[in-house]
Task: structure prediction
Amino acid sequence: MIELEQVSYGYGDRTLLSDISMKLAPGSFHFLTGPSGAGKTTLIKLCYAELIASQGRVSLFDQDAQRMTRDDVAKARRRIGVVHQDCQFLDHLSVAENVSLPLTVSGRSLENPSELDDLLAWVGLTGQSDAKPPELSGGERQRAALARAVVMSPDVILADEPTGNIDWDMSLRLLKLLVELNKMGKTVLIATHDMNLIRSAKAQIQARVLRISNRQLQLAGADL
Ligand SMILES: Nc1ncnc2c1ncn2[C@@H]1O[C@H](COP(=O)(O)OP(=O)(O)OP(=O)(O)O)[C@@H](O)[C@H]1O
Ligand SMILES: [Mg+2]
Result:
């Protein structure tokens, strides 16, 4: 689905990621870890062509990101749901409107309006559907961000610190939703610092743990 081959990237002169290879196969579940500033968010941005590699090749659904037109990128992004680290919303719109925004901007609609209710129920936000984002708690915001990421029925979900700033019970609840998506066949990548979350996931599903260290990507495992 998404593949990086010997990819390097840096902001300005500083190389941040070097010779990174990674393959997100259909239905796989990956964690991405590494210290703050290691480049997790940057790597995720390379995965949806928000950034273009300075060296190497990034393929989105077998297309070379460097050669994709704006249109190609827009089409590929419909198949990729991103939960952004800062999960920003349009504060003047309701939760339901924010969650359905990806549909609105791409001129699509749900086949059945009740699908939006189902989606909000799935993330446990039925009661908050008319609320405005500033009225939500941290955990509710993260769940709204996840609902927005999956509203287009993407094949791949890239979640950047989806459990940052929320308590353990809420983290487990969010993880459960991501595990459910994976069991439905979606490809999932989660960037996180939280080793307990990774352990908890590994008890439920087969997950690979990738770690960025010294600009390189390594497969972590035995130490978890
Ligand atoms: N747009 C940018 N311009 C210049 N430098 C940037 C930019 N975005 C990120 N960086 C730098 O690149 C490095 C990696 O940032 P990135 O956000 O990818 O790290 P991260 O691993 O996601 O960190 P965290 O765990 O804190 O989210 C940091 O040193 C950051 O300051
Ligand atoms: Mg980050």
Summary: Residues 83 and 159 are 4 Å apart (CA to CA).
